[in-house]
Amino acid sequence: MSIETIVLAVGTEDDERIERLADEIVAVAEPADAEVVLTHVFDEEEFDETRAKLGFEAGSETATPDAVAERHAATRKLSKALAAAGVRHSVRGAVGDLAAEVVETAEGLGADRVVVGGRRRSPTGKAVFGSVAQEVMLSAPCPVTFVRESAS
């Protein structure tokens, strides 16, 4: 099976693993000449805060989730790394439930792979707090690669 489309879930907490995410994406996308869709999902509060921090006016036609995602620091860093490696990519933004939006994007694009980042957690931590990455892995319509942040 060839990989044509990869959805890379990008979140605010991914600052800690930008390099690892970029390395993983390049390793998977480059040989296949795949298109990578950087998908940054905001919850409502984070979207409003980020939009304001970036200087977008509330209710402005230019303050779309795509535009805010394109200017978000984590997304810009990943985009720069992928461009430097010659990997074709685009940026999408969404507001809503993180796991559901990533899965919906993957389904809508007919993605061949989803890549998500996360941190190591105890079984109790997963049970009590849930895990967006775990929810994506269980619900995605294609294989999911989990990229863990480096051990400190």
Structural commentary:
This protein is an alpha/beta fold and 152 residues long. The protein has a single domain (5-148), classed as 3-Layer(aba) Sandwich (Rossmann fold). Helix content is 47%, strand content 21%. Strands 3-2-1-4-5 form a five-stranded parallel sheet, sandwiched between helices. The protein starts with a strand and ends with a strand. The model has no long low-confidence stretch (mean pLDDT 86). Residues 5-148 form the UspA domain. This is UspA domain protein. It comes from Halorubrum coriense DSM 10284. Belongs to the universal stress protein A family.
Which helices and strands, and how do they pair?
Blueprint: E1 5-10, H1 18-32, E2 35-42, H2 44-53, H3 65-71, H4 73-84, E3 89-95, H5 98-109, E4 113-118, H6 123-129, H7 132-139, E5 144-148
Parallel strand pairs: 1-2, 1-4, 2-3, 4-5
What is the CA-atom radius of gyration, in angstroms?
A: 15 Å
Unreliable spans are: none
Strand content: 15-25%
Named at the architecture level, the CATH assignment is 3-Layer(aba) Sandwich
| SSE-based structural type | alpha/beta
Number of domains: 1
Q: What does this entry show, briefly?
A:
It comes from Halorubrum coriense DSM 10284. The chain has 152 residues and is α/β, with parallel strands linked by helices.
Keywords summarizing the entry:
UspA; alpha/beta; 7 helices; Universal_stress_UspA; 152 residues
